[in-house]
Amino acid sequence: MSTNATDNTTDEQARQYAELNIGDEEFVIYDRENHQAWIQSTVSLEVSELR
What we know:
Elements: H1 11-16, E1 17-23, E2 26-31, E3 38-41
Antiparallel strand pairs: 1-2, 2-3
């Protein structure tokens, strides 16, 4: 796994994904076009924070 990350996300791709806060520090990130594609986490960061 590489520690170097690049963000080639377009505005259209950024709108494709959404975040849902489901409780105390729990988040679900999901694909607005494919509701079966999701991931749950206790951490959520903006892409801009990763740079």
